[in-house]
Amino acid sequence: MPTRVIIGAQWGDEGKGKIVDLLSDSADVVVRYQGGANAGHTLKFDGNTHVLHLIPSGIFHDNTTCVIGNGVVIDPEALMEEMKMVQDLGVNLKDRLLISETAHIILPFHKKLDSEKESHSADKAIGTTGRGIGPAYMHKTARLGLRMIDLCYPDQLAEKLKPIAEYSNCVLKHLYKAPEVNPDEIVEQLVAYGKELKPYITNTVEYLNQQRISETKNLLLEGAQGVMLDLDHGTYPYVTSSSPTTGGASTGSGLPAASFDQITGITKAYCTRVGNGPFPTELHDETGDELRRAGNEFGATTGRPRRCGWIDLVALRHAVHVTGINELAITKLDVLDQFNPVKLCTSYRIDGEETNVFPLDLNKLESVEPVFTEMEGWDQSTRDLKSEDDIPQPLLQFLEFIEEYLGVPIVLLSTGPDREETLQRSKTSV
Ligand code: IMP
Predict the structure, then answer these.
(1) So what's the pLDDT on residue 97?
(2) What whole-number distance in Å separates Cα of residue 290 and Cα of residue 294?
(3) Domain ranges in the chain?
(4) What's the CA gap between 183 and 312, in Å, rounded?
């Protein structure tokens, strides 16, 4: 049975939560593979809105087992709050939520280091979510980190925390002149978290591969953030600290990349970015404000207003290249209903030369002038598109233009926040 990976193809906030929730109907297992509580996946159904930060967006479908994979960094406090929120809504988590024993833990040190680094960076700040993501991954690669399995050995926690505490408090005290964090209090908290979370902590790599090998199970992998925030392939250093790409899906779950059949890129019909860093198609005018208003573009995790601009096909081409995206879902199409004409960025002008190659050199990226193609808007509501025949001609042309440019079929259209406001298309190739 197919394994499908959901990848944010832009700067995050593409509406992955809604798509994962929708596709979970036919999934047996849903896996989050990277990031942490920096993500905010919004789901709307039955007139209610739910925002998930760590638990996979398939949790509201009884048929699915949800896995928090080894590539995720977990803030146990945030996770337990979220588990309670979901349980209060009547969801049974027992045997339905599995937490990787090798996922790393976000500690109070990490959140403190994150906020101190940001406030000491002045105009070079990344604009992080403040959730401790960067420092937690930093300690993972430095081989200092604590992992979820460590919560199962409470007697060893104090000893294991020592090197992180020494490093973190030294940086807090001497570099940032900030108060130190008391490691004894953290150990106490971790012991309490361990008692609650132990029943969920397991070897998810073995579990996932057994599901894959059984060949009767549908697996769905859920990425957080987006390709342009990838540590290697994004707009470094203005990126997150994980890999929201296909490679990240494999390392962050323990499933072989060769087992991925469908790689579904999610893109908005326009473009947004939250936080700092290059954003070639950003609009600083009334049209940008209008996109923000129409799309309600405010962060699900931090509430920050998102920067808005026209869809960027040069950046999407790069995302397709580095991930192997072989089908696209396009979200928030209804937001463009009121715009005529609509624009798509089809090349960049850099030092007077036109190119369709996304530059990874920050100096070049910051000097990009976007070149747009204008298309006729569709001047009608798309909220109740029910079949392919309902798609207005100008919208069809807009979709076909994107498909041709990227060489990838658009298989799913989302025209509103609700599960129902979605059109799955029959096409599988351009
Ligand atoms: P961090 O992941 O909190 O370290 O933030 C690094 C960058 O990624 C910042 O620009 C954040 O705004 C951005 N970012 C992190 N998570 C998300 C997300 O879920 N959606 C959009 N941007 C995000």
Answers:
(1) 98
(2) 6
(3) 3-86+204-424, 104-199
(4) 46
Residue 41 appears among annotated catalytic residues: yes
Task: Measure 11 CA to ligand 1 centroid, in angstroms.
Answer: 8
The protein residue with its alpha carbon nearest to ligand 1, atom 20, reads 12
Say how far apart CA 142 and CA 161 lie, in whole Å: 14
Compute the C-alpha angle 371/377/381, nearest 5°.
140
3-86+204-424 CATH fold: Adenylosuccinate Synthetase; Chain A, domain 3 (3.90.170)
Q: Does the CA dihedral 132-138-143-144 come out positive or negative?
A: negative
Question: Residues 83-120: pLDDT tens digits?
Answer: 999 999 999 999 899 999 999 999 999 999 999 999 99
Rounded to the nearest angstrom, the distance between the alpha carbon of 130 and the centre of ligand 1 is 9
**Is the pLDDT reported for residue 3 higher than 90?**
yes
Q: What is the pLDDT of residues 183-195, one digit of tens each?
A: 999 999 999 999 9
The pLDDT of residue 429 is: 65
Contact call for residues 375 and 394 (beta carbons, < 8 A): yes
Note the pLDDT of residue 301. 77
Query: Which residue lies with its CA nearest to atom 21 of ligand 1?
Result: 12
Token pair for 331:
């979200």
Average pLDDT of the chain? Answer: 95
Fold of 104-199: Adenylosuccinate Synthetase, subunit A; domain 2 (1.10.300)
Q: Tell whether ligand 1 has an atom less than 6 A from the beta carbon of residue 134.
A: yes
